[in-house]
Every structure is written in structure tokens, then in C-alpha cells.
Amino acid sequence: MQDYLNHTFWGNTIQNYIIAVAIFLGASALIFIFRKVVLGRLRKWAQSTETKLDDLLIRALQKSIIPVLNILIFYIAVKTLILHPKVERAVDVISVILITFFLIRMITAALRFGLDSYIKRKATEEEEAQRRIKQMRGITAIVSFFIWVLGFIFLLDNLGFEITTVIAGLGIGGIAIALAAQAVLGDLFSYFVIFFDRPFEIGDFIVIGEFRGNIEHIGIKTTRVRSLSGEQLVFGNSDLTNSRIQNFKRMEKRRVVFKLGVTYQTPAEKIEEAVKIVEQTIIDHPNVTYDRGHFAAFGPFSLDLEFVYFVLSNDYIQYMNIQQDVNFKVLREFEKLGIEFAYPTQTLFVNKEEKNS
């Protein structure tokens, strides 16, 4: 029996092959038991907890760490044998490539989990969180690309390649690309600013200079706005971050300055009554907070009344409905009292002199 075990094939005895296979099968059996028993119980326990971190760790164990352990077991088992230099080199290269692949995949999964958790923590509603997670996919893709590039450079270094030339080439190429695509990179970095600083979001009504509309889409390079007249406006992200933006979606309440002008022939008593009428009309309206009302000024052709109130909503249509209701009620009450609204007029006084004949 011993003579049979000492029989040599390709530089190794049968006993060496049996030891290598035993190491691989024994370690694989232990990993299989761990995956079926321990990992199964951990998965059930993770489902009963509120935190998502344990779910991430279990997915990392199942999809990345266990495959890496299987590769290491195979590598250790094979390394117990005497191999041809080319075969040994092929085993080393394949092992390094596979281990690097699974480790980078685990890093990118952790990155996505971290960004998703950050968004869900910052978002106030589940719908908003899901919308921002979709927006984040562009950022995740870019960061993942750079991670894979770094992983590739690390792989070349471990395989014995001279990476100094590669890094220098990437540096020169990066500078050339940056100079050639300054506008694109500017919009890309502005996208990061929009995503993390959140000056506006999809659905917000904004005003940029003479343009106004609702945000429809926020992309890596451009943001699309649906204007009030129906057409789509496309802005470069850098144009938006460099502009002054009025975001009406963030307005908690709308301040309204309401002005009226009545004729100079209106008696002072009726002016006082007019102020009280408008004041009471505004106070009686729901979703409105009254601020002040005054006989404000003697205008060029009218006695000017000024009132200020707040609409407790950022909805423009609701504000216009309230203002219309106030206008109708004031108009009816002024008609009852005979108070006339002023309009631009001009009075000419002609001095007629008699000529002596």
C-alpha cells in the first residue's frame, strides 16, 4: 500500500494528491456547514432586527467572503503540490484575479449600502428616499468606476507589472481629458453639489432669472424644467449652481401685500370703515394669518390703503383663490357703502381772464 502511495505522477506522489484533495474537501465541508447552519441562523436573526447593517454583513459573507475562502482553500491545497512553473504561475494569476474581483465587489456593495442609508436617514418620506436613491445611481456608477480602476491597478501591481508607467499615463490622460471636457466635468461636479446640498428636488417650482417651472429630471450633466407654458427647459447643472434660484416649494407661507386706491372725494369716516371692512374680510378667511392694514399714503390720484396677510400654504392656486374671494367681498361691501375705487385722472384748472374792450 505504501508503495502505491509513493508512486509518483507529474512530480507528486499519490499521497501528496490525496492530502491536497483532503485539505480542499475538508475545508469545503466546513464552509458548507457554516453557510447552511450558521449563516442560515444569522439570516433569520437579521430579518427580525430593524437595522440593515446586519443584512449587509450577511450578504457580504454569502456573496464575497465565502467565495474568497473557497478560492483560498483551493490555492492552499494546490500549493501543497509541486507544480510546473507555468502551471504555478497560472494558479497564482487566476487566484489573485478572482480574489480582487470579489473584494472590489464587496467594497462597491458597501458603498451603495452606505449611500442608501445616508439618503434614507436624510429623507422625510419613503417616496422621497426612493426618488433620491434613483438619482444617486449616477454617482454610484462613477465612484464604482474609479474603484474598479484602482482595483485594476492594484491587480497589475500584484501580478508583477510595472505600474509607474501606467499611473503616469493615466495622470497625463486625465489632465488631457479634464482640459478637453471642462464643461462636462463642471456639470458633473455641480451634480454632486445638487445631490448633496439639495437646493432643489424633482417636483419643486423654481425661478431662474426670467425662466420658471417645475423640476422634472436631475441628470449627471443637465437638469430639465417644465415651464408654465408647457415647453421643456434644459439647463446645464453648472448654470444652476452658479445662478440665484428661487425655490417656491420650500416656501412655508406666502406673504401678500394687498393695495387699494379710493377716490379723494371719499370722506374720512368711510376710509376708516373701508380699512375695517378689508381687515375683517381677511381675518374671516380660513388658511390666512392677518398682519396689518393701514391708510398708507396720499397717492397722485388716490387715497392708498395697504394690507398685509400670510397665506398658510405655498400653493399658488390656493393663494389666487383666496385673493379672488377677498376681492369679491371687498368689492360688494364697497358698493354698498358707495366707496369708489380710484383710477388715473387729471384735473385741469383753467383761469379765464376778461379782456377790456
Order of secondary-structure elements: HEEHHHHHHEEEEHEEHEEH
Report the sheet-strand fraction.
15-25%
Strand runs, count? 10
Class inferred from helices and paired strands: alpha+beta
Structure description:
The protein is of the alpha+beta class and 357 residues long. Helix content is 60%, strand content 17%. It has helices spanning 2-5, 14-47, 53-79, 85-122, 126-158, 163-180, 182-197, 237-241, 268-283, 316-337, and strands spanning 8-9, 12-13, 205-208, 211-218, 222-227, 232-236, 245-247, 254-262, 288-298, 303-311. The strands form three sheets. The chain has a five-stranded antiparallel sheet with strand order 6-5-4-3-7.
Show the helix and strand layout.
Elements: H1 2-5, E1 8-9, E2 12-13, H2 14-47, H3 53-79, H4 85-122, H5 126-158, H6 163-180, H7 182-197, E3 205-208, E4 211-218, E5 222-227, E6 232-236, H8 237-241, E7 245-247, E8 254-262, H9 268-283, E9 288-298, E10 303-311, H10 316-337
Antiparallel strand pairs: 1-2, 3-4, 3-7, 4-5, 5-6, 8-10, 9-10
